[in-house]
Amino acid sequence: MITHLGRYEIISELGRGAMGIVYKARDPLIERIVAIKAINLQNLTQSEKADYEARFYQEAKVVGRLNHPNIVTIHDLGESGDVAYIAMELMEGSELQNFIADNPNLSIDDKLDIAIQVATGMAYAHQHGIVHRDIKPSNIMVLNGNHVKVADFGIAKMTSSLLHTQTGVIVGSPLYMSPEQVLNLPTDSRSDIFALGIVLYQMLTGRLPFYGDNANSVMYQIVNEVQQTPSLLNPDIPASLDIIVANCLAKKPDDRYQNAHEMVNDLLSCRKILPNSKLDINGNRRYFGSNNFIYDNSIANWIHINKISNWKLICILMLAGFMFTTLYEMIEQLYFDK
Ligand SMILES: Nc1ncnc2c1ncn2[C@@H]1O[C@H](COP(=O)(O)OP(=O)(O)O)[C@@H](O)[C@H]1O
Ligand SMILES: [Mg+2]
């Protein structure tokens, strides 16, 4: 294993993807632990490399400016020998597919919360002109059991020329591709909505909407077949959620949600009517017993953020009551008993 990439000291390997290896590393300058995605440029000719670098740095300027709680932060990028690298926030959590496997009793409400967080990060990136192009469970991380972050925003674009040059074919699984990606037509933010529709479908039903023995069969289905209605596979799924999934998985981009905000709004409306939802009918979160990620600023939120459990809260209230009684008695003695 390599020991350094630029100034970064490699600690261990975190995982491997189509582009190369992701390492856990230490930045000695800032005394910070980061994740580094290393991209091998070894097999490129000089002009291919120059072409690739121009695209890499151009796209990185835009991606590096993204700053959102549901998106992994990019810290830095550089080159070391024949390796280009991207240093980013280290996420210590579970990839979505592992999180779902480890929590088989996750409610529909919790699954919608995950989709909402992904769509919220997506809406922000799309507003900044960045399309992900590779939304899939291994790019969605769940931290602390409830906070979702999306990795690799814009990376697919930064690296697509490289993959094409090195292999000449589409690399990676087509399972989360949109019809326009399969057909090599122009893609836009609505391709991400399609991919998130597949992730949502898989979370809700435990199955992929388009699946086959080989890549060609999957791609054929993505372009030509209509998915089975989710509620037929899981009767707990409300009809409104069937409609949301259908709005994501429309074959033509014009027939889908036109932006991720629309999808977030529909998912929120759907959550409000679910039995045992952590959202009340007004869309506010219910806190006690909930372990959801928090967005607003109420006292209940403060209690939740500071992980104040019910028994601690009772102690605080009893202490406050005791102090109030003591104060009242003191005032009574001073003014009334004379
Ligand atoms: N910022 C990160 N923090 C922690 N682990 C990461 C980070 N980025 C990627 N990983 C891990 O490295 C693995 C490989 O990542 P990647 O090369 O993006 O491939 P893919 O997304 O196709 O799985 C991922 O499966 C993930 O578990
Ligand atoms: Mg990834």
Q: How is this structure best described in words?
A:
The chain has 338 residues and is α+β, with helices and mostly antiparallel strands. It has three domains: 90 residues, Phosphorylase Kinase, domain 1; 213 residues, Transferase(Phosphotransferase), domain 1, CATH 1.10.510; 31 residues. The protein is built from twelve helices and nine strands. The protein has a six-stranded antiparallel β-sheet, covered by helices on one side. Strands 7-8-9 form a three-stranded antiparallel β-sheet. Strand 5 and strand 6 form a beta hairpin. The longest helix has 26 residues. The radius of gyration is 24 Å and the shape is globular. The site of adenosine-5'-diphosphate has 19 residues, from strand 2, strand 4 and strand 6.
The count of domains is 3
Q: List low-pLDDT spans.
A: 165-169, 288-297
Give the distinct bound molecules: adenosine-5'-diphosphate, magnesium ion
Global mean pLDDT: 87
* CA radius of gyration: 24 Å
Report helical residue fraction. 40-55%
What string gives the helices and strands in order?
EEEEHEEEHHEEHHHHHHHHH
Q: Whole-Å distance between the termini? A: 83 Å
Task: Find the structural class using helix and strand composition.
Answer: alpha+beta
CATH topology value of the largest domain:
Transferase(Phosphotransferase), domain 1
Number of helices: 12
